[in-house]
Design goal:
Belongs to the binding-protein-dependent transport system permease family. This is Sugar ABC transporter permease. It is found in: Cell membrane. The structure is a single chain. The protein is mainly α and about 325 residues long. The protein contains 15 helices and two strands. It is globular, with a radius of gyration of 32 Å.
């Protein structure tokens, strides 16, 4: 038998090469990859420029001209003439005063009631979900429906409010023609619509406060009122500042409630509850003075900036004062 040939030694396997790590996206795709996050912001800024910045700048441009609604293409340079005529108009100062009065009458009770409702709903109550949902029903109601219903409630002859006042021996109140009474009536509509909305915001802020703070305060013997003053309010300070700013902006731009309360652009027979929003509408679409209406819009914008800045400054100063204690 032939002898078997010796097996030839096999060559050792070649070492496997380590895989090359992938290049980062910025190197693999070049410059455009670093710009991709900004591409997602383009639609927002495009719409904001078209419907926010451009109308604001164009309104400032029109406010320097004499522009009438009948002939919008014919502009006559006036410079600051629209602003001068505005500040010499007594109805402008009446509207400004009414805006401030109605804003205070609606904002302060609204936020106080919202804070109290949120504090009650923060405890473990039965049917909490039902009550929280019910708080949003006034906010979900249209301003037209709410204003028309309240106009019937505050009616002079057949209104429910005067009927209730008559039961306790109080003479009927002329809610639509009296200055103070009409402003209280309009403020009531605003309070009814926005209290529940702000209460839910406060409730969401209260639920972010750690429960350990309340437990420590209870161990120290603090009552619920003192817990509310020294735990809840400090924890809600950013939320309170936010609601105060939003309510201030809404009060400055108040339009639907006073317009539909009686259906008059002038805000009553003696302009007793005409706000800046109604005054702007009256000048622009009642008297056809688009240039003066644009000037009013810019005055309202600057007023909002000043009021919001004052709120932010007061909140920041209080925070610094408490931090320095």
């Amino acid at each position: 038998m032939p002898s078997a040939e010796p097996l030839s030694p096999q060559a050792p396997p070649a070492p496997a090469t380590a895989p090359k790590p992938p290049e980062p996206p910025s190197r693999r795709r070049g410059r455009p990859a670093s710009l991709s996050p900004y591409a997602f912001l383009v639609p927002f800024f495009t719409l904001f420029a078209a419907f926010g910045i451009f109308p604001l700048l164009y309104t400032a441009y029109v406010s320097l001209y004499r522009a009438e609604l009948q002939t919008p293409g014919e502009l006559e340079w006036r410079g600051l003439g629209n602003y001068t005529a505005l500040f010499t108009d007594p109805f402008f100062w009446t509207a400004l005063r009414n805006t401030f009065t109605i804003g205070v009458l609606s904002t302060v009770p609204q936020l106080l009631m919202a804070l109290g409702l949120a504090h009650v709903l923060n405890y473990r109550l039965r049917a909490r979900t039902f009550f929280r949902t019910a708080l949003l029903l006034p906010y979900a109601t249209s301003v037209a429906a709410a204003s028309l219903i309240f106009a019937q409630l505050f009616g002079h002859d057949f209104g429910l409010i005067n009927r209730l006042l008559d039961l306790v021996g109080i003479h009927p109140v002329d809610w639509q023609n009296g200055t103070a009474a009409s402003q209280v009536a309009v403020s009531t509509i605003v309070v009814w619509r926005w209290t529940g909305y702000n209460a839910l915001i406060y409730l969401a802020g209260m639920q972010t406060i750690p429960a350990e703070l309340y437990e420590a305060a209870e161990v120290d013997g603090a009552s619920r009122w003192r817990q509310f003053l020294h735990v809840t309010l400090p924890g809600l300070r950013p939320t309170i500042v936010f609601t105060s700013i939003v309510s201030t902006i809404g009060a400055t731009q108040l339009f639907g409630e006073p317009l539909l309360f009686e259906g008059s652009v002038s805000g009553g027979i003696s302009h007793q509850y005409q706000t800046l929003g109604l005054y702007l509408y009256e000048q622009g679409w009642g008297f056809f003075h688009l240039g003066r209406a644009a000037a009013i819009a810019w005055v309202m914008f600057l007023l909002i900036v000043v009021l919001v800045g004052a709120n932010a400054w007061a909140a920041r100063r209080r925070s610094r004062k408490e931090a320095g204690r």
